[in-house]
Amino acid sequence: MAYPPTGVWLWATRNKEQGRGNTMPTLGIIGSGNIGSAVARLAVAADIDVVIANSRGPQSLADLVEELGSRATAGTVEQAASAGETILLSIPLTAYSSLPAELLRGRTVLDTGNYYPHRDGRIGELDAEKMTTAELAQQLLPGALLVKAFNNILAHHIPQLARPAGAPDRSALPIAGTDQGAKTRAAELIDRLGFDTVDAGTPGETWRFEPEAGAYTRIYLADPSVPVERMLEAPAAPLSADELRAALQASERVKVAERTF
């Protein structure tokens, strides 16, 4: 069964009807691409203020901020990094080293990043499987409380699958990190955005839901056999927490050096 992108607005209405319209601390979003924009839409629909930034500067975000409404503000990367205690990071992996690491120190950072060799070039430590992408990200951002999240779902499936807490067709997302407090804060935010969470362990275990692994993107497709070239338009179907746990458990480690996308 397919769920339309407008489902996010139906979810937001039901969320408010159930008394979950109270505000939460501001969410900083670094990266205004597909994932960052999708999460921003869920956040403002859930009455969460956002400060969103990208590498092109606040002026490039005028249209997006106008669409998002009064709860959204365009800012610099530094302003988004210091906007609140929780930051969503959705930028290419090769740009992590340019971030204001000191501003992220001690903050909960939801890391949506993946290693895509066609975009990032070949990264020897990842190809040799000396570390996972999440472990490399932590190395690049020392002191940040990284939680891997939103990296295993297609951007257009995020609004399609958002549901209020307790909905029988609510989907789950994996999260992973080393700081339990940060994982708790990430789970609370993701719950507010419309998803259950499954603790997928430490950064060293995130290979289970990295690209091409068993718990990556296709598990949210209504038809998991959809050809690759049609996935970016293919509809989603709910994935429960139990189904996600099973997918994580069954996932086999991908040979990173053989990956091409």
- Briefly, what CATH class? Alpha Beta
Number of strands: 8
Annotation field: number of helices:
11
Give the strand order, joined by hyphens, for the main sheet: 3-2-1-4-5-6-7-8
How many domains is the backbone divided into?
1
Strand content: 5-15%
Rg from alpha-carbon coordinates = 17 Å
Q: What is the share of helical residues?
A: 25-40%
Tell me, briefly, the overall form. Answer: globular
Distance between the ends: 29 Å
The name of the CATH superfamily reads NAD(P)-binding Rossmann-like Domain
Describe this protein's structure.
- This protein is α/β, with parallel strands linked by helices and 261 residues long.
- It has a single domain (7-258), classed as Rossmann fold, CATH 3.40.50.
- It is 32% helix and 15% strand.
- The chain has eleven helices and eight strands.
- The chain has helices at 7-17, 34-45, 62-68, 77-81, 101-104, 117-120, 124-127, 133-140, 157-161, 180-193, 241-250, and strands at residues 24-30, 48-53, 72-74, 86-89, 108-111, 145-148, 172-177, 196-199.
- An eight-stranded mixed beta sheet has the order 3-2-1-4-5-6-7-8, sandwiched between helices.
- The longest helix has 14 residues, at 180-193.
- The two termini are 29 Å apart.
- Residues 1-6 have low confidence and may be disordered.
Keywords:
261 residues, alpha/beta, Rossmann fold, eight-stranded mixed beta sheet, 32% helix, globular
Tell me the layout of helices and strands.
Elements: H1 7-17, E1 24-30, H2 34-45, E2 48-53, H3 62-68, E3 72-74, H4 77-81, E4 86-89, H5 101-104, E5 108-111, H6 117-120, H7 124-127, H8 133-140, E6 145-148, H9 157-161, E7 172-177, H10 180-193, E8 196-199, H11 241-250
Parallel strand pairs: 1-2, 1-4, 2-3, 4-5, 5-6, 7-8
Antiparallel strand pairs: 6-7
